[in-house]
Specification:
Structural class: mainly alpha
Protein name: Phage protein
Pfam families: Phage_connect_1
Number of domains: 1
Radius of gyration: 19 Å
Order of helices and strands: HHHEEH
Distance between the termini: 56 Å
Oligomer: single chain
Strand content: 5-15%
Number of helices: 4
Largest sheet: 2 strands, antiparallel
Organism: Enterococcus faecalis ATCC 6055
Strand order of the largest sheet: 1-2
């Protein structure tokens, strides 16, 4: 796995396809940590696509909250995943239910 320094260097000095590879890998890592999984479920591929595109278009403007110039205003959310919070929480709740059902059993007292 490349270091943070290598990734930042690629984001600053590499062609678009290499930048996209770094952004996709880092986006998947972040989503995996939010979902508490080691591999991103395929049902989240559309979210990965949208977040990667947003992050790619924002290169050079990281850390900005908003930007205005001659009638153009852009605002950036605190988290790239905030608009997908419902899907993420639904998935986490589904996983909890599955785990709970596995643990549920019967107790018999004789």
């Amino acid at each position: 796995m490349p270091s943070i320094t290598e990734d930042i260097t690629k984001l600053l000095n590499s062609p678009a396809n290499e930048k996209l590879e770094v952004i996709e890998r880092r986006t998947r890592e972040r989503l995996n940590s939010l979902l508490n999984v080691s591999e991103t479920p395929s049902k989240f591929d559309s979210i990965i696509y949208e977040v990667v595109l947003k992050r790619f278009n924002r290169i050079g403007q990281e850390g900005m909250i908003s930007y205005s110039q001659e009638g153009l205003t852009m605002a950036f959310p605190d988290s790239d995943f905030s608009e997908y919070e419902k899907q993420i929480n639904d998935y986490l709740n589904e996983e909890k239910e599955v785990q709970y059902k596995k643990l549920r059993g019967k107790a018999r007292f004789v």
